[in-house]
Specification:
The protein has helices at about 30-55, 75-80, 100, 110, 135, 140, 155-175, 185-200, 210-215, 220-230, 245-265, 275-290, and strands spanning about 60-65, 90-95, 120-125, 175-185, 240-245. With about 290 residues, it is α/β, with parallel strands linked by helices. The termini are far apart. It binds adenosine-5'-triphosphate and magnesium ion.
């Protein structure tokens, strides 16, 4: 079965209404066996495409993961990583900025960590936090030492959306493909996952008090996410809203989208020119003629 990913992709025009978008879709498979088979198949294809990305050395891929706590970002990233060569991939997690990071513009810390040509970069949270958590908690913005007026300006978010879309367009023009995933979790499923983290002792480490604190701002987060996704989903740097109440289906949808993005690049292994072919033939002759 081929997973249809188009319905998850946010069109560049129009407003996103997260209340109307399901957090659980029709299950892709009715058996664990079929699920595992699909998973293996995705990982195999991903490994081949990553090799090609690396060898052709033209493009890079930036995967951005944003979500509420316990939506499954970590699991999805682990899953994607299990299919690729760690040498061609880097994962960065962005938490509260340091004072050095705050002394730069809000795109600086993530720009320093963009993937090089031939590589895959994964951002676990990203510059999008600057229009999400910072918007939900305006006191964070006040602490950012912005020039007079900027931090209070009503259009500060509009300005940030513009900075983000222009930066992503610039990346696209220069060979970086940006794909953004919002793992769309229901508030009830988050409650269940938090309870599991408390009940099961080997999951206790995953639970933090800050998570329940942020849960109180759920509606404000959903509003901020909806506006952010509506304002920053472009043809070249699309958002995908992934129903996340089912972790397995979410991972399959994500890997299918990554496969399609890589496949769409129409990459090819570099071909040896005449001079190189001659050089290789001479080396081969020497190696074959070596005394054993
Ligand atoms: P996990 O809980 O799975 O370890 P996480 O991404 O939730 O992963 P935490 O250490 O729990 O990691 O939380 C990081 C926190 O940092 C989040 O609450 C996030 O909103 C916050 N954060 C990230 N970027 C910024 C930013 N630019 N400004 C302020 N807070 C930020
Ligand atoms: Mg957390």
């Amino acid at each position: 079965m081929k997973i249809k990913t188009d319905s998850f992709r946010v069109r560049p025009v129009g407003k996103v209404d997260l209340d109307k978008i399901p957090t659980r879709g029709q299950p892709f498979f009715d058996s664990k066996h079929a699920y595992r088979k699909c998973l293996r198949d995705h990982l195999k294809q991903m490994a081949l495409l990553q090799r090609l990305l690396y060898a052709s050395d033209r493009y890079s891929l930036l995967l951005i993961f944003q979500a509420m706590d316990a939506a499954g970002k970590d699991g999805a990233i682990r899953h994607v990583m299990s299919g690729i060569n760690p040498q061609g991939c880097q994962v960065f997690s962005f938490k509260e900025p340091s004072s050095e990071e705050l002394d730069h513009d809000f795109l600086w810390r993530t720009n320093c960590r963009l993937p090089e040509r031939g590589r895959i970069g994964i951002f676990n949270r990203s510059y999008y936090e600057e229009v999400l958590v910072v918007r939900v908690h305006p006191e964070i913005l006040k602490g950012q030492n912005l020039p007079d007026g900027l931090g209070d300006a009503k259009d500060v978010w509009k300005g940030r959306f513009r900075s983000i879309t222009e930066m992503e367009a610039h990346l696209h023009r220069n060979g970086t493909r940006v794909v953004k995933f919002f793992l769309h979790l229901s508030k009830e499923e988050q409650r269940k996952r938090f309870l599991d983290r408390i009940k099961e002792s080997d999951k206790n480490w995953k639970f933090s008090l800050a998570d329940v604190h942020e849960r109180k701002y759920w509606d404000a987060y959903m509003k901020a996410y909806a506006e952010c996704i509506s304002a920053t989903s472009t043809a070249d740097a699309p958002w995908y809203i992934i129903p996340a109440d089912d972790k397995h289906d979410a991972r399959l949808a994500i890997s299918q989208i990554i496969l399609e993005t890589l496949d769409g690049l129409k990459m090819a292994y570099p071909k040896a020119d005449e001079a190189r072919r001659k050089e290789l033939a001479a080396i081969r002759k020497n190696l074959e003629g070596e005394k054993r």
